[in-house]
Fold this protein.
Amino acid sequence: MDFKDIAFKVIISLFAIFYYLYALVVSKQVKIMDKTLQDEHNDLIVFVTSLQVTASLVILIIVLFAVFII
Amino acid sequence: MENNNKKGSVFYSYSLNPQAKFNTQEEGEKVYLLLRSHPFTQIGWFLSSILFFIILFIFNFFLPNFLNFGQIFIINLFYFIIICSYIWFNILNWYFNVGIVTSKRVIDIDFYAILYKEITNAQLGKIEDTTVKSGGYLESFFDFGSIFIQTAGTEENIEFLDVPHPSDAVQIINKLLSKKHGF
């Protein structure tokens, strides 16, 4: 494994971790915003935000799997 | 409040008598009007998103020269989720930045970059003056502009920026003020 591969794996791992944390923060804020203003599409907003958190977790697992197993 | 001919329009950015509620709403306080920025003002990030997708498409012609398939897949995946997050971030910013006119007060709810929240409200009795500013070709064509509400004393002034049908919104506020002051 050369330096380029190692650097690539470190960068994508860090990115996946930070993206997961970002998705968690957004999810937390959306809950606050949902409490502040309840409008007719809030359920959809909360649902899509949950999807974002789930997707970020799946991406993190895929990346960690790719980095450590493959 | 049934004096207005626009029941709700422009992609939920002008809702008359909406079903919306907010957390500091008092007993018996009725929401008459809910305003968001006109969708046309969101065109900047919308076009940027399309441009980012085009850049991703073009990049894929050159990436195979430098990276293997797995790396290209991961880069595409990350680039794609960055664009989606950017779109979602802007939608949230638009959706939760609202102006509300109720039977008792006018409220401006702002979320800056999602993380910072600012809620300003002015009781109808404290409102001194309302101003509509709408200038320019696009504002006139799409009928949107900004409303500035000046309050008495130390209360903060309120701004509803780039909202649709600003004249109609001010008309509603003025009617509520007239009712409040008994004119």
User: Anything to note?
Assistant: The CA atoms of residues 101 and 173 of chain B lie 7 Å apart. Chain B has two domains: 8-20+29-37+100-181, 43-92.
